[in-house]
Amino acid sequence: MKKIVSSVLAASMVLSLAACGSSASTSESTSSEATTSSAATGESAGSGAYTGTPIKIGGIGPVTGAAAVYGNAVKNAEELAVKEINAANGSDVFEWQFEDDENDAEKSINAYNTLKDWGMQILAGPVTTTPSVAVASETVNDNLFMLTPSASSLSVILEDPNVEEPVARGNVFQICFTDPNQGVASADYIADNGLPTKIGVIYDSSDAYSSGIYEKFKAEAAVKGLEIVAAEAFTADNKADLSTQLAKCQEAGAELVFLPIYYQEASQILIAADKIGYTPEFFGCDGMDGILSIEGFDTSLAEGLMLLTPFAADADDEKTQAFVSAYEAAYGETPNQFAADAYDVIYSLYEAVLAGGINGDMDASEICDALKTQYTSMTFDGLTGTGMTWDATGAISKNPKAVVIKDGAYAAM
Q1: Which of 28, 30, 131, 413 has the most CB atoms lying inside 10 A of its own CB?
Q2: Order of strands across the sheet with 145-148?
Q3: Closest by alpha carbon to 57, among 77, 39, 41, 40?
Q4: Tens digit of pLDDT for each residue in 147-170?
Q5: Residue 62 pLDDT > 50, yes or no?
Q6: Going edge to edge, which strands form the sheet with 401-406?
Q7: Weakest mean pLDDT among 106-115, 247-256, 368-377, 403-412
Q8: Helix ranges restricted to H, 175-238
């Protein structure tokens, strides 16, 4: 494993802006059923470009339980991308199987072992951070390439991000922003776009994702002249009622409330704000994506909510619209950014496979070594960014987009 000194890590952060049932499978028998988008038939896939033995890709994520909105989006998009690539190629490039982990670390390791028994050669997952940290350690031992679409903590790609000289796992990469990058980018966006500068923050101090974003946001806010008038924490064991934290933001005169948290807790805060007549601007990160899908939630309460995300479904570029159309046709709903990141995972793997001469006759360790070389040297244009690159830690460099909830849908800002 390669040692990456803290100064190199800091530089990489700046470069990267700032960052159903138990299983499902797709193989040759289903590849011809794909609804093919132009993303598949354009530069990254062509008829007969791959002629080797199919490569086995495994996916892991929560398709049941409280975090299922994330896992199902990833599962659907991975399946769609695999089908598109196989259909456009004229023969199978990938075989794919997805396992449910219910957002539980132990179950995620069990899912990983199930996929290993199946013959997995590349892991496209897991979806959430805690399972990803647990599984990442297993992949290091096996020298199996892991590319997560959405687990954004530095602890996923680094052995211990808190030491002076963090050690990169080496085989684990992210296609999502890292948590520190989201905190920096959020503060920059607020400061650079004339949003209110008296800010309250409500965050989960027990969660690596939330607290990691908050710490970097706080540091960048000081640089940018933003005033944090209230910083209110909760924990996983004490989040049934967040009205107290919200009231403290109101009492402190916060005109914008920054929410580096997941959408379930954010919906509670929006409901509480409505009850007390508190109407600040609300600003979140990628964990906010999914708030419009909560059963029984009055989505009008989220009107005007802003968030940073790598993907906006209403963007008018051809690649985005082709993906959205294909996804909606296949699954009956509009894809979120977790789906878009997962789609990019599969397409970036395909480009790396072609460029590196990788095929399914190679064992998982050989494929891992080849993919590490490709990902640290390639540039990838996808749904969630153009000119995407990866550094030696496995962190990605790409630019976020700001979206706002308008008329019950996400709209680009």
Answers
A1: 131
A2: 23-26, 94-100, 55-61, 122-124, 145-148, 172-174
A3: 77
A4: 999 998 889 999 988 888 889 999
A5: yes
A6: 227-234, 198-204, 256-259, 281-284, 306-309, 401-406, 409-412
A7: 403-412
A8: 179-192, 208-224
